[in-house]
Amino acid sequence: MEHIKIGGIEKFSVVDFPNSIAAVVFMQGCPWRCPFCYNTHLQEAGKETEISWPAFLEFLERRKAVLDGVVFSGGEPLVQNNLSAAMDDVIALGYKVGLHTGGYRPEALEKVLPKVDWVGLDIKAPLEAARYKQATGCFDKVENVVQSLRLLINSGKDFETRTTCDPRLLSIEDIYTMAAFLKAEGVKNYHLQKYRPIPSDKTTQDSECEKFFQDKDLVKYLSDTFEIFDLRK
Ligand code: SF4
User: Fold this and answer.
1) Total structural domains in the chain?
2) pLDDT (tens digit, 9 = 90+) per residue, 157-185?
3) Model pTM?
4) Half-sphere exposure (CA, 13 Å, Cβ side) for 187?
C-alpha cells in the first residue's frame, strides 16, 4: 500500500490510551486550524517523514514485550486514506488500536471503527456552526461531529469525549452547554483539558485558563453528570 504519512512518534505513553502502555503515531495532515493547536507542524501533509511506516512497524515488532497498544493521533488521522490498512498492520502484530479524532469525517470513522479498541473524541465547542467554525478556524459542519459521536455511542466501543478549555473561545457557560448536550446523547465519559497558551499567545493569563478548574459548581456538575470525569492540567 501507499504508506501513511507520519509526522512523529511517541515511543512510550501511559496517558494517551487508557489502560494501555502505548506508542503514539502522530499523523500528518489536519484540515482544521484550531487557535490553540500545539501541533501546527502536522497540519500540512506531504512533508519529509522522520520515520517511515515500515520502520515504525519494525519498531513495534521489537517492542511487543513492553507495549500493548498503538494510538493513531494527529493531526487528524481520519484524513489519511490508508489509515484502515495501517491499523490492520498494527493489529497483525498483536497490538490494540486507539484513535484520537475530532470527528471530522464520520464515513472514515465508520470504516475503521471495527478495528479500533478505544477512541478519544475532541469536542471543540458547543455544537453550533458558528461556534465550531471559530474553535476550529474553518469547520462548521457540526453534523459531522454529531454523527461521529453517535457512531461511537451505537458501536458500543470504549471512548471518551474531551474539551480543551481555551478561555479565548469558551466560557464556563459553554462547558455546561456542551456537557448537557453530551449527557443527552448518552455520553458517560467526559474530560476537561487545560489550555496552555501557545507560543504566539502572549496575552492569555494562567488564571484565565484555570477558571474552568477552579469553579467548584462546574466541577461538581460535571462529576455528577458523567460516570467518568476528570480535570487534565
Ligand atoms: S484538530 Fe488538532 S491537529 Fe488539527 S488544528 Fe485542531 S488541535 Fe491542531
Assistant:
1) 1
2) 999 999 999 999 999 999 999 999 999 99
3) 0.96
4) 30
